[in-house]
Each structure stands twice: as structure tokens, then as C-alpha cells.
Amino acid sequence: MQGLIGELLGTFILCFLGDSVVANVILDKTKGNGSGWAVITLGWMVAVMVPVLMFGAMSGAHFNPAVTIGLAINSGDFSLVPGYIAMQMIGGILGGLLVWVFYKDHFDATKDRDTKLGVFATGPAIRNTTNNFISEFVATFMLIFAIIGSGQATDVPGPISVAAIILAMGTALGGTTGYALNPARDLGPRIAYVLAPIKDKRDPDWSYAWIPVVGPICGGIVAGIVASLVW
Prior knowledge:
This protein is an all-alpha fold. Helix content is 75%, strand content 0%. It has helices spanning 2-26, 37-59, 65-75, 81-102, 104-109, 113-120, 129-154, 159-173, 183-195, 206-209, 211-230.
């Protein structure tokens, strides 16, 4: 039960802090408006590191269905998968809803509908289904392969090493699709976008939404397999 609570709260905090960084950068009339990609990547690094610090010992700090599945394949133990993924999805939805509450005035002040969706969910810089899928697949493979590898080097990957990996993913591999890397981080807040009474919102782009879910899961599966062959 502690593990489930840790995954729920950790994913909630991750999505609330991470999506709030995006809101601060792209919504109109915020103090951070226009501060750019560097702030977003640094913010997401810290958004991941904070719940890892808080709940790493409690749940293992997955906060990501692709991580949970990849680690299960690597270890051969699938007992945590259903419960962890359920808690991660609930945490992602709740985190997204709190972002809307926190930044409500700025959502109201923002006219561009794509910008409002962009706070909650990732989208491609250039829409190309094949390449967008490859981007999410490769980036998530690198994330999970690096997490497993750092765990081999230090027994358990610590919050600093995880933060460094996340920063590398964002700065190096985030430019094509916004580096979702995490179905709970993308689909959870995307559902929150649907549920929240946001003024003048667009459709949630369901035609693209499968890519930041299936791509990371496939990347996690392959990372788990390859890591089991390497270590």
C-alpha cells in the first residue's frame, strides 16, 4: 500500500510541478512568460527530482508506466505493474487539474487555444506520425536504459542521477515532440484538460495522443530487454 500511495503522490507532484513550469513559460501575463525552453527543461528536471527525493524509498520512484513496465521486464517481476500504473494515471490527472486551478487567471487571459493544450500535453514540432513515434520510442528507451544502468553502477539510482538523465533527455531529445517519455505525464493531464472547465479550449488532439503513450511503452519494453542482456 505504501508503494501505491508513493506512486500516486509522486506522479501528482511530478505533473503538477512540471506542467506548472510550462504554464509559467507559455501562458499570457505570467511572470515567466517567454522565458523559453531552457527554463522548461530545468523545471522538468526538478519536477522529477522532488518526488524522487520524497518517495523514492517508499515506491522506487517510478511515476511512469513505461518505467514500471521496463523495470518489470528487466527483473521478471510484474506484480507491481497493474497497481502502479493505475496510481500513476490518477496522479497525472489530479496534477493536471491542480495546474488549471493554480493558473486559472492566466488560462483565462490566454487567447491561443493550442497554447492552453500545450500546458497539459505534448505535441510535435513537425507532425509526422512515423518520426514522432520514433522520437518518443528512442528517447524513452534512452531514459529507462540509463536509469537501469545507473542503478547497476550505484545499486539504486539516486535523485541527482535521475535528474541529470531527465535534463539530458530534455535538452538533447526534447525538440521534436516535447519529450513526453511518460504515458501518465501526457495522457493524465490531457484527460485533466478535457475535464477542466477551461474557457475557449480546443479538442485534446486525440489523433496524436496515442504516440506519447505507445511510443514510451514500446521504448520501455525494449530498454528492459536490452538491459537484461547487458547486465
